[in-house]
Hints:
This protein is α/β, with parallel strands linked by helices. It has helices at 3-8, 12-24, 27-34, 38-52, 68-95, 108-113, 115-125, 138-146, 193-198, 209-219, 235-243, 253-262, 291-301, and strands at residues 57-60, 63-66, 101-106, 130-135, 152-155, 164-178, 202-204, 230-232, 249-252, 266-267, 275-284. Helix 10 (209-219) links the parallel strand 7 and strand 8 (230-232).
Amino acid sequence: MTPESDAALPDIESLRLLVLVAERRSLTAAATELRISQPSASKRLSRLERRLGVRLVDRTRRGSSLTPAGTLVTGWALRVLDALNALAGGVEALRREHTGQLTVAASLTIAEYLLPAWIGELRRADPDLHVGMQVTNSAHVCELARRGEVDIGFIESPGRPAGLRSRSVAGDRLVLVAAPGHPWTRRKRPVPPAEVAATPLISREAGSGTRQAAAQAMAAHGLDLAPPLLELGSSTAVRSAVVAGAGPALISDLVVAADLATGTLAEIPIEDVTVERSLRAVWRTGTTPSGPAAALLSHARRPSARA
Length: 307
């Protein structure tokens, strides 16, 4: 390969940017996902176009769309990125000292209420398996999976995450709960969505799947959630604050099922709103779960493992 052809080769980060622009139809959204500024993303894209000698993206006030040449280049870029991910995965497999090792990341609700049973079944079949687990919010789980730092992740965010392969493994719903004695618990009719959205709730931190699902449910009614009354780092902390009477919260029914059964908390219906979501396994594009990761995915999808 000549020095001139070397100079025409695009860099990997520019290819990732192009693929994200194609997926998001927005240069700003792509820049946000890559954690770079919009001007930096624009310069990087312009540099890629100059290097390749073709126009890839049409940019207007309504967003960004691929040119015919951009569509072709994006398809090739996806193959390059998939091959690179496969290379990284293969090298990681070679680097590990033994195959009986599994790295997992999971959002807090899944890690506390579902994952222990899944891993328990996995280790009964393979007692020597070593499992390394990171517990964090859904957004960070996706980051870890994209970077190939975990074999498989589990999230509770609404929708399919960009740049990852995913599969639904379970489902749950968010319920509006409060301690007995809260004014909403004495109502005979469901609370209107506008009133819920306007009321500061006890909430998880930004980036959590629970908070994203709650915001999405209100957005479906053209509403934005009010700033949180309290912002806490785990569903258990949110549940404890509600039990203590600090205020209401939208929270997974997995977290408060026992409290609702005993009357420690009361569920408050929301008019014309049901917040159901899919809990998903995620892994890096260009790879397929294998070995312990595939076995864990199988256990997670088995109905008996979610009981």
